Amino acid sequence: MRAQDLTKPHRGTISLHDRTQPLHITGSQTEFMSLRPGMSLVLPHDISSAEIASIESDEAITLKREFRGLRALELLEAPGGTEFKVAPKVDQSKVYEKVFERIEEGGCIGIFPEGGSHDRPDLLPLKGDSYLVNPKR
């Protein structure tokens, strides 16, 4: 399960008031205290996302890394800020445990990257970097 698949709109708008401090995000009518570090803020149309490092108040938050891209800056610096969504932190440790168990048992793991994420029910053409991993053969 991907965190992007679990995003939900959040109350209020977010802004960046100082480009020299791109990790500091200000909220308006937000309830940041209902969030947790590790979750991510996601800009409209999934333009960019950034993980929360710490929450100072209901209207002040610090990110682990800045939002990326010119369009993200335009949204964050627009008058009134921008709406946003929140993505939970998804713990994939159980998935990795199962993968390592399978490999230790001598099994195979198939990885078929399509080069990007999508919500189509059919597969996109696979890239040439698809692998079948079996370290015991």
Specify Rg, calculated over alpha carbons.
19 Å
The fraction of residues in strands falls at 25-35%
Low-confidence parts: 129-135
Structural class: alpha+beta
Enter the CATH topology name of the largest domain.
Answer: Thrombin, subunit H
Counted by DSSP, the helix tally is 2
Compute the number of strand runs: 9
Structural domain count: 2
Shape: elongated
Q: Within the largest sheet, what's the order of strands?
A: 1-7-4-5-6-3-2
| N to C succession of SSEs | EEEEEEHEHEE
Biggest beta-sheet profile: 7 strands, antiparallel
In the CATH hierarchy, the architecture of the largest domain is: Beta Barrel
CATH C-level class of the largest domain is Mainly Beta
What this model shows, in words?
By secondary structure, the protein is an alpha+beta fold. The protein has two domains: 3-87, Thrombin, subunit H (Beta Barrel); 93-133, no CATH class. 15% of the residues lie in helices and 26% in strands. It has two helices and nine strands, in the order ββββββαβαββ. A seven-stranded antiparallel sheet has the order 1-7-4-5-6-3-2. The protein has a two-stranded antiparallel ribbon with strand order 8-9. Residues 129-135 have low confidence and may be disordered.
